[in-house]
Specification:
Blueprint (H helix, E strand, L loop, with lengths): L1 H24 L5 H23 L6 H26 L1 H54 L2 E21 L2 E20 L6 H23 L1 H11 L3 H14 L1 H27 L4 H24 L1
Antiparallel strand pairs: 1-2
Helix pairs in contact: 1-2, 1-3, 1-8, 3-8, 4-5, 4-6, 4-7, 7-8
Length: 300
């Protein structure tokens, strides 16, 4: 028990550190979340190792499966640990990596901004032409004649009718229209402030777009660096390993280290002969089988 506990403790400490660091670096969890991720990784490792430690005469399929799992876990562990150890080197390589990504998307971004600026230029030109036409019309006709019509209703006698020696007057209603004219300021004067405000807002938008176009590359580089994730760093590290034999050799050493640590419990189990734990388990199993046989015979 002490031997297996010591071997499992080494693996659990490593994977607690890997789970804690991964949650902190890439998932941006708080301290309790990082601790939970480390504990979760440790529990998974313990449950995996228990399949080997608590098994009596493990089959070859179980040993093969545990060996494949150890190989995959050693690669994952080495990748995560190396991204922490090579952090400074990854930051240096990230500069060229981010620059290449920016160069690929920069033409489309600049073309979009140029189209927006051209559209604003066209709209501003139309508004300025409209304002010039208003100003020209106002300068020629500062005032205009406004005509108002008022209608008055009155009754006037139409005719007198005599009936039974009595005169009766018939009235009719007529409408009289009175037309009045007065000089008022040109109504286009009231439209000028609105047009000026619209032109000013469009010019402000144009200046903002031109400023974005001027600083688009540094802004994209800053955005790319801020959003670099696990897969991006993994790609950067792959480029770095393919171009440096020293880094590649160090990475393989980490893989072998994790692999041997993962296989430590398995090799210990394979090298063990019969022990008291297995004898106790086999004794209880044989005893239970005898009880079941005896119970079956009693029913017969």
């Amino acid at each position: 028990m002490k031997k297996y506990t010591a071997a499992m403790l080494i693996v659990c400490i490593l994977w607690f550190f890997i789970g804690f660091t991964f949650a902190h670096r890439y998932l941006s969890l708080s301290l309790p979340g990082c601790i939970f991720a480390g504990v979760l990784a440790t529990v998974i490792i313990v449950q995996v190792e228990k399949q080997i430690v608590l098994s009596i005469n493990p089959s070859r399929l179980l040993l093969f499966f545990r060996g494949c799992l150890a190989f995959m876990m050693s690669i994952l562990g080495a990748v995560i640990i190396d991204q922490i150890l090579f952090e400074k080197d990854i930051e240096i390589e990230k500069i060229s990596y981010v620059s290449e990504k920016v160069d690929r998307i920069l033409p489309s971004k600049t073309e979009e901004l140029r189209k927006q600026i051209a559209t604003l230029d066209t709209t501003i030109g139309k508004k300025e032409l409209e304002r010039d036409n208003y100003i020209e019309d106002i300068s020629k006709h500062s005032t205009t004649t406004a005509t108002t019509t008022q209608t008055a209703t009155k009754r006037v006698p139409e005719k007198t009718v005599t009936a039974s020696g009595k005169d009766t007057t018939i009235w009719k209603t007529i409408h009289e229209n009175t037309v009045a004219s007065m000089l008022v300021p040109n109504p286009k004067i009231a439209l000028l402030p609105s047009i000026d405000s619209t032109i000013g807002a469009m010019r402000q938008q144009k200046a903002q777009k031109e400023n974005e176009l001027l600083h688009i590359k540094p802004a994209l580089e800053k955005e790319m660096k801020a959003s670099t994730g696990f897969l991006d760093e993994l790609t950067i590290m792959t480029h770095m390993l393919s171009s440096s034999y020293v880094a590649l050799g160090f990475w393989f050493l980490w893989i072998l280290f994790f692999l041997f640590i993962e296989m430590l419990v398995l090799f210990s189990k394979m090298g063990d002969r019969s022990n008291d734990y297995e004898k106790v388990v086999l004794h209880h199993m044989n005893l239970q089988m005898r009880r079941l046989d005896a119970l079956g015979k009693g029913f017969e």
